[in-house]
Design brief:
Length: 285
């Protein structure tokens, strides 16, 4: 009964969080629109001076190593390509929207995990030979329920994470006892509140249970596998002491063998420089 009461309270409070910022909503719409062009993306980004500055700082970071400075969003799209700039823009707007503030929770570690998961999701789809809409954003946003808990409950969420470590159990188990739901369900509720695409909401909500997906089981499988493969690459998440179990059903749905998953882990292990450079540039904003 107590868990049910906690869940009702958590649902109500999540739905009282601010709605999605207009610019992030527009970028997500462009990301979901197969007809969207580089011009569409450029107009949205250049209309927000702060976002433009953040994007250009990332593009001019040491990771990309251009011999001359990239001066405009249009130029960034030309040299990096539409999809890379789109993903960087999604990353910048998301991290700015969900800034840590005075939180005691290690939000930077979460961002490392989330960004790596976004990259991993795209690689999963590529290796599977499938064109799947929403991969990067599903990986990037799969753990936003933890941010919701941190924003709403602060110390209580940090205490839940500490208990998970002390007991050596997945954070989701402690969240369910503490809040009446785990971060996956909280993330799904926040995704609905933000009017994210139903397929992305489902991928967030079921990234630990992809076998229950009905809207877009393939995207959900991608999110689950991406969340799994980043842990052995050193992109774990600090609140969770237990790496997720290998989502075999998800890998099978994507047609990926154990050897393909192992190759994916080896590939993603080389992403640390890129992830750190992007986050470092955004933290300097």
């Amino acid at each position: 009964m107590a868990a049910e009461k906690s869940a009702r309270e958590a649902v109500a409070r999540i739905r009282e969080l601010p709605t999605l910022p207009v610019v992030l909503g527009r970028v997500l719409s462009i990301a979901a629109d197969p007809e969207a062009s580089a011009l569409d993306l450029g107009r949205v980004v250049t209309a927000d001076q702060s976002l433009s500055a953040a994007l250009l700082k990332v593009v001019n970071s040491a990771y990309y190593g251009f011999y001359r400075k990239i001066e405009s969003v249009t130029q960034a799209i030309v040299v990096l390509g539409f999809f890379e700039v789109r993903n960087l823009t999604l990353t910048a707007t998301t991290f700015r929207t969900l800034a840590a503030g005075n939180s005691a929770y290690d939000r930077r570690q979460l961002w490392r995990h989330s960004l790596a998961a976004g990259m991993a999701a795209e690689r999963c789809a590529h290796l599977a030979g499938k064109k799947i809409s929403g991969c990067f954003e599903s990986g990037l946003l799969h753990d936003i329920g933890k941010v919701a808990f941190d924003m709403l409950y602060g110390d209580k969420f940090v205490q839940a994470a500490n208990r998970a470590h002390e007991q050596g159990v997945p954070i989701g188990e402690v969240e369910a006892r503490t809040f009446g739901m785990d971060h996956a369900e909280a993330g799904g509720i926040l995704g609905e509140h933000w009017n994210l695409p139903p397929s992305v909401v489902e991928a967030i909500r079921l990234h630990h249970q992809p076998e229950h997906a009905t809207v877009d089981p393939v995207l959900c499988a991608v999110a689950a596998l991406a969340n799994y493969v980043v842990y052995p690459c050193g992109f774990g998440e600090s609140s969770n002491p237990i790496p997720p179990e290998f989502p075999r059903a998800a890998a099978e749905r994507l047609g990926l063998t154990d050897a393909a998953c192992e190759e994916l882990v080896r590939e993603l292990s080389g992403y640390e420089e890129k992830v750190n450079e992007i986050l470092g540039a955004l933290e300097g904003e």
